[in-house]
Amino acid sequence: MRFCFFLLLVFCIMMSCKNKYETEKVSVENRFSVELPYHLKKTKGLNEDAILQYSNAVQELYVVVLEEKKDKLLNSLNKDSLSKENNVMSLEKYSSLCYERLENHTEELKDFDVKNSVINGLNAKDAEFVVKISGVNMYYNYVILEGTDYYYQLFIWTLLRHKRDHHSSIRHIISTFCEY
Predict the structure, then answer these.
(1) What's the domain of life for this entry (predicted)?
(2) Nearest-angstrom CA–CA distance, 72 and 91
C-alpha cells in the first residue's frame, strides 16, 4: 500500500514539473518560431495587432509578438528618420520610436533598463521595466529584434510579485526566438 502511494506521489510530482518546465515550439507563418511553456495557451484580446498571443491567467504570464514589415515602415515615416546612405531605419532609431510610444501610453514607468544583445543571430534591444497599470505593478520584458524583412517586438509580462517565479521562463522564451 505504501509503495502504491509512493508511486502515485512520484507520478503527480513528475506531471506538475512537465507543465512548468517543458516547452513547445510555436512557428508563425514560416517567418519565426519561439519556444513557449506548455502551460501557456493561445489566446486573443491581449493586443489586436499581435501575430502571436499566449497566456496563462492563473499563473499571470502573458506573451505577445508584434511585427512591422521594414518596407511598409519606411513608407509610413518621414525621410528624416532614415539614414542618408541607404534609406533604412536602424534598430537604434526604431527602438527609440517604440520606447517613446511606450512612455506616452503608460502611467508610471520605472526601473527601465535597456541592453544591446544578439538573439539567435538577430540584433536586439532587450528592455526590462516595471509599470503600474490600474494601481497594479507589472513586470515587463520587452525585446525589439531586427529581422531580415521585419522588426519584431516581443512583450512578456507578469505581476511584479511573480517576477522571480517566471524570470527563468521569460528568459528562455526570449532566447529561443528565431527567424527563418
Answers:
(1) Bacteria
(2) 15
Burial string for 75-96 (b: 16+ CB within 10 Å, else e) reads eeeeeeebeeeeeebebeebbb
Q: Are 62 and 156 in contact (CB under 8 A)?
A: yes
Per-residue pLDDT tens over the stretch 138-170: 999 999 999 999 999 999 999 999 999 999 999
Q: Would the pTM of this model clear 0.85, i.e. be above it?
A: no
* Pairwise CA distance, residues 74 & 135, whole Å: 37
| Phi, psi (rounded to 5 degrees) for 96 | -60, -45
- C-alpha 168/C-alpha 174 separation (Å) is 10
Domains and CATH numbers, the chain: 25-179 (3.40.1000.10)
The CA-based dihedral angle spanning residues 123, 54, 114, 137, taken in that order and rounded to the nearest 10 degrees: 180
Alpha-carbon torsion, ordered 68, 74, 78, 81, to 10 deg? 80
Cα–Cα distance, 142 to 125 (Å, whole number): 8
